[in-house]
Design brief:
heterodimer, A: MetI-like fold, B: 247 residues, Rossmann fold, 8 strands
Chain lengths: 293, 247
Amino acid sequence: MMRSLSRHFLPVLTVVLLLVAVWYAAAVAMNAKWTLDQAARADRSVAPAELVRDTLSQDRPKLPAPHQIAGELWDTTVGKKITSKRSLVYHAWITLSATLSGFVIGTVLGIVLAIGIVHSRSMDLSVMPWAIASQTVPILALAPMIIVVLNSVGVTGLLPKATISAYLSFFPVVVGMVAGLRSPDRLQLDLLRTYHADRSQAFRKLRWPASVPYLFTSLKVGIAASLIGAIVGELPTGAVAGLGARLLAGSYYGQTVQIWSALFAAALLAALLVGLLGLIQRITLHRMGAMER
Amino acid sequence: MFPSADGEVRALDRVNLEIGRGEFVSFIGPSGCGKTSFLRLVAGLEHPTGGELEVNGLSPDEARQSRAYGYVFQAAGLLPWRTIARNIALPLEIMGYSRAEQKDRIARVLSLVELDGFGRKFPWQLSGGMQQRASIARALSFDADLLLMDEPFGALDEIVRDRLNGQLRDLWKRTEKTIAFVTHSILEAVYLSTRIVVMSPRPGRIHRVIESTLPDERPLDIRDTPEFATLAHEVREGLRAGHSYDA
């Protein structure tokens, strides 16, 4: 236990510490100009210790120091009521709900399309190129249009954002599930033919279970894409609510600490979601007899 | 005839053979002599371009639809996400047997292949020989009279193979199945069969059919008797005359 702990965490911890150190150094270097300019304007000189202290505690630094972001994160999560518009938990929940709705829609759509593609040659030829083409359009260009169009037909709130999430997340599911549903080999398919199994039996007993490992891999990519979709979807709505809105509002007012803390909240959320899926994946595959590793 | 990259290949040509109920017929020949193709034709997995083929008085496709045979492939082909018992249940589920019936049959065929107690294991927990035995149990589970076996022991080492040959022979005698068995091994063919079909390649033909003169009771050391050696010699001669050894 201790050995595996040190084996896994020691390298990670080392890298994290290194990054933090580099970050502090960069914060001092990038924020120094402002401190020096202020001092020059007041016609006084700055001692090195004072310079370091000041660069790490500015209100609107070019690069906030890690402890400033941590402080802001603490303030806006634990320090505020979660119903407050200044609470990051409130905004994260708005983004999360759009992410999850979009993820579910995208996953279902992706699975349905994959099943169609695997079972119908004409769908294979017609749908796949469109699915690929859909992902070559930059989502930043597409998102405002989706929001505007849906708004004009009276659809507002969660659904437009979920649509963008679904748009991004269905693709990895389609690609992964097509590969997964086609993963049974010739022998396994012949075996079912010798039993005179019909297509739906071949699907339920062979193709679907064979595709489960592929599905989880796709879902992990898909949920991260969903989160990005939801955040991008929050940008053109005029910064009302959500992590995307926090990012946008932060950049309007030069609130770098707020931007960075929203970024970190988004990253944490993504890590949490992917981690959760990873856990479900391990449990499911274990029950399906996967070899212990 | 099968299409191939450079036009059509005549896989089998003028093959004429009748297999009686309860026989154990081996098909031996070099790679490319069409023995696997022949088995796949019987199973209705491929379709002939000409000729007549009947399985229990039905066309191969009808025989397949009436689940008249169990097929054992070169690899065990067990589904990795199912336990051994669930793997054996696969054909039973597809054919609509009740839960209780499935349980009975699983227990019965597991003991038939001497795998009692392994039902709850997953395939990767079993050795290659045990996996192949499980796949034979799977083919036996729905009581087809005909067993089609395509080099089922080809990937196993000789020691395991000897043991499985003995077990298969016992199993055949006990269950009175008809078995069509494809192999590369002269020893295996002679030891197991009541009749040995020697095939020659390009195009695949039946070169000779040799009736076994061995007694019904065959312990493994029957292979050291002169009678066995004579038969094996005959098969080898047949293969040579059919140009099987020309490289």
